[in-house]
Every structure is written in structure tokens, then in C-alpha cells.
Write a structure and sequence with these properties.
alpha+beta; 18% helix; DNA-binding; six-stranded antiparallel sheet; WRKY_dom; WRKY domain-containing protein
DNA sequence: CGTATTTGACCGGCGC
DNA sequence: GCGCCGGTCAAATACG
């Protein structure tokens, strides 16, 4: 993990300039997005905490070759490669990509968010008497950025908002949500980037212990271990056409892994209503030229914020 | 009426 | 010790 942090520091991350202002989806859903598998030192981190590897102990990443993911993220990164900065220096993002150390991810498991409820209880208890000095361990975190007009993306789970706070150095407040499922203690924070107001940063904390209440149509079906998504067959086959289901973090990783091995790049899996495009995960996100993307792809990609590591492979265009 | 949201207050951690 | 800040609680309110 420390190792990763070092990596991070050396690479000064940021978003890529691939974000376009056009083609924003009215109903942003999870895969407008792109996850940012970044790790941060949550002690020092700014408001944007990406994948907080240091806290990953809850995720039960089922793939033993998770390192593949790392490789995917890292393999093409050369030390000389200067960081790509987006529209702005965005120092907030400088915590950079930290693609997790595979071992740190895959070796986890353990108390899934099931203890989320307990967490709450213990918290309440601690309010009464003097609390112990037991430092509460953080849930695994997973954050991603979305280019969206709406803050709260529908990810297929039901969330109850329990708080909102003003964010320092940002005109936009941060909203706090908790999964409404009683046994599920998953939380998420949603805030809009002050650097780029079209970007919404969503941070998940914990792991769902229940299936998603709605299922997507098509999207996750592309995954061999389809059942994996939705953790157990997930919910009702109902599937709302207007909703896209958000996978859990490890599900996303699965998708990444899978897709990165499929080399399927230009076949949309979703209807036009849905915004996810496989190009998001395309095998060669580091394509040397933007022109590599077809016009169509670009249209689909423009809402996505690619993982910083990936973006860093993009040629830097001085403008 | 049940559920979700809003919002001010409160708490704990951390830096100075 | 104090103040700042992030996160949470919970009463009040809104909504369907």
C-alpha cells in the first residue's frame, strides 16, 4: 500500500482532457462514468477520495488475478510520462491514481458491510457514555467521477439522504447517503467538483450485503459471471428501463477485467437510453491519438472520466 | 400516514 | 486546550 502511495506521488494525476461538454446525458447513470481507481491517503486527502486502498478490507474481490487490473492500469505508464492535467491544475486530484496493489485487494473479504448497522449502533452507544479509544476502522471506499448534470446518480440501490455539508473551498455541498436496506450499512457521498462543475464525485463506502433492488437490462449480462453482479442474482428481473444498476466496486473491477480481455470496443451494450459504452473499458485506453476513437465512441465517452492512470497515457496536448 | 429530505446541532479527530 | 472540519444525528418538514 505504501508502495502504491509512492507511485501515486510520482504520478501527478488528474483528469484527462477527454471530457467534453457536449452530449451530456439527461439521466446520468453509473456508467456515464468511469471509475477512478485511485487510492488516497484518507488522512490527508481532499474531499475527493478515490478508491481508498488502504482501507480495502471489505471488498471481496473474487478474482485472483486482480493484478491484471493493476497491470492494465500501470503497464503502459512510463516514468517520463508527464501527468496530464485536465482543464485545470486541479490540485484536488493530485492524490492520484493509485491502482491498488493486487494483493491488498484480493486478500480481503471479511466483514462485509453487514456490520454497517452495527456501526451505527456502536456510534449511538458511543454517544451516551464515554467511548472507547477504539479507532473505528473505515469501510472500504470506492470513488468515481461522473460527468453529469445531476448529483445523485441512480445506481440501482435505494439511498436515504442523511446529511449535507458545505464543502470547504467549494460552492457545492456534499451530500451523504445511506443504503436504505436495514442490514446494509453502505454509505455514499456525493459532491460536485468545484474544479469542473460538470463533474460529480461519488464515493461509496462499504459493501452492499443485499442484491440490487433493480436489475439492469443487458449491461451486466455481458459478463460471464453475470450472477456476480448483483451479488447473488440480484433482485428483480424487473429492471427499469430508465435505470442503470450500479455494480459494487468489485463488480466494476470485474467488469474492467473482463472487458479488458475481450477487446470488444465498439459495440454498445446498452440501448441509447443507457450511457455505458464498452469503449469506456476499452483495451487500449492509452491510445496514442484521440482520433482512435470513432466519432460515435467519442460521443459515448465524453461523459466518462477515465481512470487517471489511463488518462495519463493520453498524449498531452499543449494548448 | 409512511417515507424521504432538510438542516441545525452535535461529536470526534486532528492540527496548531 | 482550542478551533476547525468532516461526518452523523434527529427533529422538523415535505412529499406522495
Amino acid at each position: 500500500m505504501l508502495l502504491m502511495e509512492e507511485t501515486i506521488k510520482s504520478d501527478n494525476l488528474s483528469f484527462s482532457g477527454q471530457i467534453s461538454e457536449t452530449g451530456r446525458m439527461p439521466n446520468s447513470s453509473f456508467f456515464d462514468v468511469i471509475s477512478s481507481y485511485n487510492c488516497v491517503d484518507h488522512q490527508k486527502t481532499s474531499s475527493f477520495g478515490f478508491l481508498d486502498i488502504s482501507d480495502i478490507h471489505d471488498f471481496d474481490f473474487p478474482f485472483s488475478d486482480i493484478s491484471t487490473f493493476d497491470d492494465l492500469m500501470l503497464q503502459n505508464i512510463s516514468p517520463e510520462q508527464p501527468p496530464v492535467s485536465l482543464t485545470s491544475p486541479a490540485p484536488e486530484y493530485s492524490e492520484v491514481a493509485n491502482t491498488s496493489n493486487s494483493s491488498s485487494i484480493s486478500s480481503s473479504s471479511t466483514e462485509p458491510a453487514g456490520n454497517g448497522g452495527n456501526q451505527e449502533k456502536t456510534k449511538k452507544q458511543s454517544l451516551k457514555p464515554k467511548k472507547k479509544k477504539v479507532k473505528k476502522e473505515r469501510e472500504a471506499r470506492f470513488a468515481f467521477m461522473t460527468k453529469s448534470d445531476i448529483d445523485h446518480l441512480d445506481d440501482g440501490y435505494r439511498w436515504r439522504k442523511y446529511g449535507q455539508k458545505a464543502v470547504k473551498n467549494s460552492p457545492f455541498p456534499r451530500s451523504y447517503y445511506r443504503c436504505t436496506s436495514t442490514s446494509c450499512g453502505v454509505k455514499k457521498r456525493v459532491e460536485r467538483s468545484s474544479e469542473d462543475t460538470s463533474i460529480v464525485v461519488t464515493t461509496y463506502e462499504g459493501t452492499h450485503t443485499h442484491p440490487c433492488h433493480i436489475m439492469p437490462r443487458g449491461f451486466f449480462g455481458i459478463i460471464p459471471e453475470t450472477a456476480a453482479f448483483g451479488s447473488g442474482g440480484g433482485g428483480g428481473g424487473g429492471g427499469s428501463p430508465s435505470h442503470l444498476v450500479m455494480p459494487t466496486p468489485h463488480q466494476m473491477l470485474q467488469y474492467h477485467l473482463h472487458h479488458n480481455t475481450q477487446q470488444q470496443q465498439e459495440q454498445p451494450y446498452l440501448s441509447s437510453n443507457n450511457t455505458f459504452s464498452p469503449t469506456l473499458m476499452q483495451k487500449r485506453p492509452f491510445c496514442p491519438s484521440v482520433s482512435t476513437y470513432s466519432a460515435r465512441d467519442h460521443g459515448l465517452l465524453q461523459d466518462m472520466l477515465l481512470p487517471s492512470k489511463i488518462l495519463m497515457k493520453e498524449p498531452i496536448k499543449e494548448e
